[in-house]
Amino acid sequence: MRLLHAYLWPPTMIRGNRLVVIILMGVLLSSAVAGAISFYNRTPNTNSDSNNIPLINARLNSVVNFCLKSLPKGYAACDSQLSTAVSNICAGHAGQPIDACSDGKVAQYYKIRSAEITKNSTILNGSKNKTNSATS
């Protein structure tokens, strides 16, 4: 009986694994097909650039607000890229009503970050000076 059980176990297990693999492949294949169909069925964007200004404005506002919400800690990506990105967008859409170009939020971000960095370096240098004077 034991020999019969050992003989039947692996083929049953293999059939179960094959079924799982077949199901997963079917799901992946159908997902890929659905993605390809939706990609090719999209209507081309024929709107002029001026019709995209509200979308650009909304996205840029969300990025600026995301960076502002991170204050006073901030994010390295905001510190290094926010000003450049906003400047490039404003230069490319001069005369368009883009909030980040005129509302001063970007300058506010860098002002608060600068104060925080100065405060942290003062605290850090102050603790180093106390450690150095204690060891002298």
Quick overview of this protein structure:
The chain has 136 residues and is mainly alpha-helical. The protein has four helices and no strands.
Write up what this structure looks like.
The protein has helices at about 1-40, 55-70, 75-90, 105-135. With about 140 residues, the protein is an all-alpha fold.
Task: List its traits.
single chain; 136 residues; mainly alpha; 0% strand; flat
Could you give the topology of this structure?
Elements: H1 2-41, H2 53-69, H3 76-92, H4 105-135
Helix pairs in contact: 2-4, 3-4
What is the H/E order? HHHH
Outline, from the CA principal axes? flat
Report how far apart the termini are: 83 Å
Indicate the proportion of strand residues: under 5%
Major pleated sheet: none
The overall strand count is 0
Integer average pLDDT: 77
- Per DSSP, the total helix count is 4
Instruction: Quickly give the structural class.
Output: mainly alpha
Report Rg: 29 Å
Low-confidence runs: none
